[in-house]
Structure formats: structure tokens, C-alpha cells
Design goal:
Layout (H helix, E strand, L loop, with lengths): L11 E2 L5 E3 L2 E2 H8 L3 E5 H18 L3 E6 L6 H9 L3 E4 L2 H9 L7 E3 L6 H9 L4 E4 L2 H14 L3 E8 L21 E2 L4 H11 L3 E7 L10 H15 L10 E5 L15 H19 L5 E4 L3 H4 L3 E13 L3 E6 L8 H5 L6 E2 L9 E6 L8 E8 L7 E5 L20 E5 L2 E6 L4 H4 L6
Helix pairs in contact: 2-9, 5-6, 8-9
Bound molecules: pyridoxal-5'-phosphate.
Amino acid sequence: MFPQSVFPDTAQIDSKGELSIGGCSASDLADEYGTPVYVLDEETLRARCRSFIDEFRKLYPNTNVSYASKAYINPALARIFQEEGMGFDVVSGGELATLIASEVSTGEIYFHGNNKTPQELSEALNNSIGWVVVDSFHELRLLDQLAREAGKTQDILIRVSPGVDPHTHVYTTTGVLDSKFGFSIQTGHAAEAVRMGLAAENLNLRGLHFHLGSPIFELEPYRVATELVLKFAAEFREEGLEMTRFSPGGGFAIGYTRDQEPPPVSDYAETIVSTMTATCQELGMEPPSLVIEPGRAIIGPAGVALYRIGAIKDVPGVRKFVSVDGGMGDNIRPALYQAEYEVVAATKANQEPGEKVTIAGKYCESGDLLASDIMLPSLESGDLLAIPAAGAYCPSMASNYNMNPRPPMVLVKDGKSRLIRRRESYQDLMHCDVV
Ligand SMILES: *Cc1c(COP(=O)(O)O)cnc(C)c1O
């Protein structure tokens, strides 16, 4: 059966067994733009923004939703997110430059990262971005000094590490003691950072942030960490900490395979908001503005990667390798974190699965496998494969390994498609080389 739950809202299989997204058929998209191609469904993208904004504001109107640009950003998408009323998280000068070039308002930009360079911090100051989320003692001193030199006072949040394990892959776990991110509450470093932040003349410390990791399928880690961090904040009231902003980060899960059931956005909202309001009441604290930072949960479900099958190699009794024209260069997640995906035969979606196959990429690494030991209909060279839930952390982590050009991005809506990033050319690959 077609795994509708992991595909964009508009994805369908027609009577001939062909996949369409946003009213555009997979084979037309592949013919027009070539393969591999990343297809983004505009309706799903906008619906995901609205669901985060609406579900949180329904319970707590004083909520801002900040899109985590690292999941994937470009100017066309930045405009859509701005239209939907989202703010933005960035983690580099390059992401910031993309947003500045897209003319989004800078007041609701949050700059994260464990080692922002002096140049990046200056860029943040020069562009008057709303918030820097300070992650280290080094950064506290550096930003204060740079702000002084620029004659500015920068609003900041401090990123604390609450020591709560969200039970996800170790590479995407961030809020525990053994992490490069944030000031640990447990070690006393968070307390020291708050005092330094309050004392810094050119910094205005206005609240705390944490981010536990991603994807987080459980609600409990958000509840435990929210309570813990607000209680920690309350200890500094008399020393002058006014919690006007509180961010429990992102990490909201999506379904990658048909058997996964991530909590609905409303459950995350209910958990975070009810914990925050109850804890604030208990502490006699004015509830702060709430900032949530979904990335994956916004763009992940909107994206589908389309590949064309080339070589098929059957090793009798061992494995059948079906190779496609992309792989780890456009989707590193299976190789990096053993991520699993559904794979659909985009023009044979009505046919019964009859073969166990492994989908291999074209890159010169044995680990370049997109999916292992999955059941698909009988496949031939030239068939199209679709991998859903591919909008987040695939194109944004793409590389030019093997000097392969990175694929294009196409936005679909109401039967029309629009290129929002063209395929790279061989010239692009050599653009920066100096002979
Ligand atoms: C990566 C990141 C996010 C977004 O994580 P998702 O899993 O994409 O929702 C939010 N906040 C911070 C600080 C991050 O580093």
C-alpha cells in the first residue's frame, strides 16, 4: 500500500499507478527537470507553518515560530516562510546572508551555534538581527566586545544544556552533559554564564534557550527540560534575570517510515505550553514569550526526491542492488545516521511488491546505500523511484563528492511546477578553483 502518511498532503497515485505531487506527475517532473530532483509541495510547506503557528498560539498567543534554516533555506523559500509569519533561526553567516538577500525582517532572526566566528558575530551586529543565542564563555566576551566597538547593545538568550536525554541518535542528541552545545546546568557553567551575561555592558540578557536534539518522538523530554530550565531561571530573579523570552528549541519528529507515528503538533504544543504556564505559576513568574524552532517538521514532509534507476546487479542468494542516479551526495542521512526511508516505485506504485532489493547510490563508497532490503515491485532500468520525507537535511547537507553537481529544487502547486534552484553545472563545480 502507498505510504501516504510520509508523503506530502497532495501526493496521489493515479489509476495507472503513477505518483503525482501538487498535481504534477513524477514522470513529467523527471522529464522536465532531469533526475535526481527534489520536489517540494507548497501546500504542505504552508500547512506545516500554519499548524505550528496555530496550534501553539491557540494555547498561548504570545508564541513566535522560528524556522530553523539549516533544515534547508533559499530565497524563494524564505519569502514563503516570511509570508506565513515565521521568524528564522540561523547557524552561520551564510544562512544569515541568504535571509538578508531575501529581505526578511531581521528582528525575528536568532543566531545559534557553538562557535560563531568574530566575522559572523559582526555580521549579526551590522545587520541588527534580533537575537544572538550565546553558547560559550568565549562568545559572551567576544560579542560583548564587538557590540561595544559597534556602539550597540545586543539582545541575547543563553543556551543552557539541561541534561535531558531525548532518546534519539547520538549524533543528533544535543541537550545532555556530554555535548559541545550549551552551558551545562549540572556543572554550574550555566549559572556562571547567566551572571556574566547580566554583567556584560553591551549585552542585554533577556531569557534562556535549550534544544534537546532531533527528531524527538517523545513528549516527556520537553516537559522535563522546560520545568527544569524555568526553575533554574527563577533562581536568578533577584540577581536581575528577567525571563522575557523562553525557547525550548526544535526537534519535532516527522514520520520517515510508514510504521512511525510522531506526535501531532498539538501534542507538542499542549506539553510545552501547559508545562511552561504551570511552572511559571508555581514560581510566581510572569510567563515569557515562547519561541519554538521547528526545521525538519516544516520542510521534511513537503519534500520528495525523485531518482532514475540505472544499473541493476543481482548477486544470487546475497543481494540485489538497484542503483540510482543520486545517493549520499544529495542525501547523506542513511550513511551518517543509519536513517531509514520509504521508497516508492513512482510509475509502478499500484504493483505488488515482489522483490527484496537494496537501493544504491552512484557515489564511490560502499556505504552509499539509500535503503537496504526493502520490498518493491519488479524494477527495470529507466524506472523512477521516489523517496519521501526528504525535504529536510538532504539538500542542505548535500555535497559535490565525486564532483557530482547537486540536484535542482522544484516547487509544485495546483498542477504547476516552478524551479527554485537549478541543477549545478560542471562550470559551477570549478567556479572557485584558481589555476
Ligand atoms: C537544528 C536546530 C533546530 C531545528 O531542529 P529540527 O529537528 O529541524 O526541528 C532548532 N533549534 C536549534 C538551536 C537547532 O540547532
